[in-house]
Amino acid sequence: MLDPLLHHNLPTVPAAQIHVIAAVIGLLLLASVTVHELGHAVVGRALGITVTSIHLWGLGGSTVLSREPERARDQYLLSVAGPLINLWFGGMSALVWQQTSYGTIPHEVALRLAAANALLAAYNLLPGLPLDGGQILRAAVWGATGDKVTGLRVAGYGGLATAALTVGVAVWESRYGGDYGLFTLLIAIFIALQAQQALRGATIARRLPHVVAGNLARPAFLIGEDIPLAEALRRAAVGGRTAVIYGTSDRPDHVLSEVLLAQVPAQRRPWVPLSSVVRPASPLDAALAGEKLLEALRRDGPREHVVMNGSELVGVLRTADVAAALNRSGAAHPVASRG
Questions:
Q1: Is 100 left (phi over 0), alpha (psi -120 to 50) or beta?
Q2: How far apart are CA 276 and CA 226, in angstroms?
Q3: Residue 86: exposed, middle, or buried by beta-carbon count in 10 A (0-12, 13-18, 19+)?
Q4: In percent, how much of the chain has pLDDT > 70?
C-alpha cells in the first residue's frame, strides 16, 4: 500500500520508488530512537555509570544502566540527554527541509524527520514515568525535597496522568478517522503499566530501610554433619525451627539447602546424611539492612544465608523472605537465639 501523503507530494515518482523512500524514512525514524538512547548512554558513562544494554522495540527504546544516579543533578542530566539529541536531530532535518525545494525527495524526507523528532522530544518531555519528562520531574522533586522516593512517587502519578491523556488522544484519533488510534492506545497502556511499577517501586523503597537481616532470620541451631537427615529435620521441627546448620567449633560451616532437600524423597531421608543436602554458609551480619542487605544477597547468591550477631548464631535468612518482606506491610519473623 502506497503512503498517500508521499504519493501526493511526489506525483512524478514511480510507485516502486515511493515504497523505497517510505522504508528509508522508517529506518531513519528508528535511527532517531537509537540516537535518543545513545544520548542517555553517553551521559551515563560520563557520570561513571556502566551501560548494561540498549533495547529498541516498536513503542520506543530504553537504556539499561548498572545502577541509578546518586544525585538529583545526575538524574536530570541523564534524563534530558535523550530529548536534547532528538531536538538537535530534528533541527538538522528542519534546516535540510528549508534548503530544499518542495516536491523533491530530500524535502519530503527531511520534513518527516523534523516532525517526528520534534514529536518524539515533546512527548518524551511530558512529566510522567517512564518518559524522560517523568525522570526530569523525579529529579526536580528529589532535588527540592531531598527525598528520592518522593520524587519517584510524584513522577509515577505523573505517568498515570500522562497515560490518561494518551488514551484521550487515542479516542480522538479513532473517532475522527485517524490511522494511529490503536498504536496510541498501546502506548498509553505501556505508560500506565510502567507508572504503576514505579509506584510499587516507591512503596518498596520506603520499606527497604526497615528490612533488617536479624529480624528476618528464621530460627536455627548447630548440629553435626554425620547425623542422618531425618533426625536433623526432627530436631529442627522441635520449637518450630525451620532450618538446620551444622558446624565445627560452634561456628556454622554449612547450611541446609531447601533446593537439595526437596530432591530427597521422604522415605530415603533416614539413610541420607545431612552433609549431602547442605551448601557452604554465607554469613551475614544481623544488623545489615536496606540497600546494603540487598547488595550482600546479590553478591553471595545462595538462597539461604547464615545470620550472625558477632560470634552468636541468629538464624537463617532466605532470599524469598526478604522479597516477601518488601512486598508486604506486616512484620517479619522474630529474631531467634541459639538453641
A1: beta
A2: 10
A3: buried
A4: 88
Tell me the CA distances in angstroms from 82 to 42, 71, 181, 233, one per residue in order: 10, 19, 25, 57
Residue with cell 494518551: 166
* 160 touches 195 (CB < 8 A): yes
Non-local (6+) Cβ contacts of 72 within 8 A are 139, 140, 142, 143, 148, 151
Q: What is the pTM of this model?
A: 0.71
H helical segments located in the chain: 4-9, 15-46, 72-99, 105-124, 132-145, 148-175, 181-207, 213-216, 229-237, 258-262, 290-300, 319-326
Nearest to 61 by CA among 29, 90, 87: 29
pLDDT digits (tens, 9 = 90+) for 67-119: 888 899 999 999 999 999 999 989 999 999 888 888 788 888 888 889 889 98
Question: 3-class DSSP state for residue 73?
Answer: helix
In the DSSP assignment, the letter for residue 290 is: H
Residue 135, CA atoms < 13 Å, CB-side half-sphere: 21
Please check whether residue 277 is in contact with residue 254, taking contact to mean a CB–CB distance below 8 angstroms.
Answer: no
The side-by-side arrangement of strands in the sheet containing 251-256 is: 245-248, 251-256, 278-280
Strands 51-57 and 60-65 come out as antiparallel
Residues 6+ apart with CB under 8 A from 204: 326, 327
Helix H or strand E segment including 248: strand 245-248
pLDDT given at position 4:
61
